[in-house]
Write a structure and sequence with these properties.
With 170 residues, the chain is an alpha/beta fold. It is built from 6 helices and 5 strands; from the N terminus they run H-H-E-H-E-H-E-H-E-E-H.
Length: 170
């Protein structure tokens, strides 16, 4: 992870330097040494932090209870919807490398455990055809199906209260 953080620091420093230099030139400043140096240092710190977060988020897995049904094909999803009957089905499109997906996973799991809605989980790296069929372009993507038809869609992280309201329509 250290080389990634170092690369982020260098990239951030270079971006900070370039932005400060252009700003100073646009404003006609003659002496820009300290401001350019400060911008380069700030950019380096930000770049290192961002790359460190991204490197730390890679790998690992998202763990689910038995209440969350892992699906990889349309046929498996159809079986979950059929078993749900009139009950809504929340389909959670996620990836193991996605930090918001990892952060939201315990909330999705708790919702499934509550029994108020069925939850089908789709790892987009393993079920690319299913993700493409649903037009997933951002993670996490949440889709509520009722009777096999999509009734609601949300993108991004949601806390437990927002997730419950979205999934149940309340």
């Amino acid at each position: 992870m250290m080389p990634i953080v170092f690369a982020g620091a260098l990239l951030g420093a270079w971006v900070g330097y370039r932005l400060a230099t252009r700003s100073a030139q646009a404003n006609g400043a003659r002496s820009r040494g300290l401001s350019v140096f400060a911008a380069a240092i700030g950019g380096g710190i930000i770049g290192a932090g961002a790359m460190g977060l991204m490197a730390g988020a890679r790998g690992g897995s998202v763990t689910w209870s038995e209440s969350v049904q892992q699906v990889t094909t349309q046929a498996e999803l159809d079986a979950v919807v059929e078993a749900a009957g009139s009950e809504p089905v929340l389909v959670d499109f996620y990836a193991t490398w996605c930090p918001p997906c990892k952060a939201m996973a315990p909330h999705v799991d708790a919702l499934a455990e509550s029994g108020k809605v069925r939850v089908a989980s789709v790892d987009t790296d393993k079920a690319t055809a299913l993700a493409e069929a649903f037009g997933v372009t951002s993670l996490p993507t949440l889709v509520v199906l009722e009777g096999g038809e999509e009734v609601r869609r949300e993108l991004g992280y949601h806390d437990i209260k927002e997730l419950h309201a979205f999934a149940t329509g309340e």
